Amino acid sequence: MKDIAQLVRPNIAALQPYSTARDEYKGELGILLDANENPYDNGMNRYPSTALKEQLRCLVADIKGVAPQQLFLGNGSDEAIDLCYRVFCEPGRDNAVIMAPSYGMYSVCADINDVGRRMVPLEPETFALPVDRLLAAADSNTKLMFICSPNNPTGNAFETSEIERLAAGFDGILVVDEAYIDFCSKPGVLPLLEKYPNLIVLQTLSKAWGMAGLRIGLAMASSYIISIFKQVKYPYNIGTDTISLALESISRDIAPQVAEIVAERDRLAAELLNAGCVKKIYPSDANFLLIQVSDPRGVYNALLEQGVIVRDRSRVTLCEGCLRITVGTPAENVKLEKCIYSYES
Ligand SMILES: *Cc1c(COP(=O)(O)O)cnc(C)c1O
Fold it and tell me: pLDDT tens for residues 20-76?
């Protein structure tokens, strides 16, 4: 088995992490003269409570079926993506293998951290996972590999067996971003965590959970990797109100909304196929559709004129001619359909 500790940057492995006042004293009661806060209560004068965040961590871990020690809560998944680079990649030397097209932050964070990136295109048209090409793209300085399933913007999810081949065959850290897993008909790869210490699974409260405004992302991995993330993250990375609102919202049942969004997605996919300007609709396991149209810029502008904003992906390699459309409420989707049906180039 790979020794994950060998993959961590030496300066990070040797880090003496910053310890906050609230780390050292976790209580709520008493006279708090330890953190240089303003003593007058206005609901926000105290630094976030470690106990409250821990409560959220335990609840989310329980929902996901992992141990709390295997879960990191970040300021969006974007914080977790950045932490992967900062923990494992030596700037100016190491590199990451990234499937393409996919979520832009894997590349942006690589650039910010001065980490090389090796873009590996998915199979054209099918957007299938090129497992052998991904493995072949790695060299001894490749510390990270980014896979997104279901993938943004193509919408397809990959088989667990293919992702497992990557986890088994890659000598670095495999990051699987499952931001859209709650909409997906295939199972996610969380069960692989037990077997592969080099796996990190990212999820988020931003999509199906309806909390994009809160900025809470999840990284799940071995307790060893999570302990290092906790040392490297900013102290108090999630604010008090964010934690409280998430605690209120996390116990609600998202299944009815998810079911409606998935049903609307499938209905939209079938309906839009009959529109004159639509050439192709790619199968989706997420809450959006990638559609190929005859005149992407024209359709985009026509929608915009009607106040409907979609994402133009037509200049993305392998997505030529494509728009990415998020599934909205039934009323919003009807409006979208009307606009697309009435479009004449
Ligand atoms: C939307 C999205 C996220 C979510 O990012 P947050 O920072 O958690 O809001 C992560 N990955 C992908 C692929 C996404 O599309």
Answer: 887 787 777 789 999 999 999 999 999 999 999 999 999 999 999 999 999 999 999
- Which part of the chain has CATH 3.40.640.10? 4-249
Residue where the block lists tokens 């399933």: 149
Determine the atom of ligand 1 nearest the C-alpha atom of 216. Answer: 8
Q: What is the pLDDT of residues 214-252, one digit of tens each?
A: 999 999 999 999 999 999 999 999 999 999 999 999 999
CA of 343 from ligand 1 middle (Å) equals 31
Pairing outcome for strands 278-281 and 288-293: antiparallel
Domain 4-249 has CATH 3.40.640.10: yes
CA distance 179 to 150: 8
Distance (Å, rounded) from C-alpha 196 to C-alpha 157? 20
For the Cβ of 217 lying below 6 angstroms from any atom of ligand 1, the answer is yes
CB 163 within 8 A of CB 176: yes
Q: Are 47 and 37 in contact (CB under 8 A)?
A: yes
- Tell me, yes or no, if the pTM score tops 0.85: yes
Sheet architecture: strand order including 142-148: 71-74, 217-220, 199-204, 173-177, 142-148, 95-100, 116-121
Q: Is 153 in the pocket of ligand 1 (CB under 6 A)?
A: no
The CATH number of the domain covering residues in 255-342? 3.90.1150.10
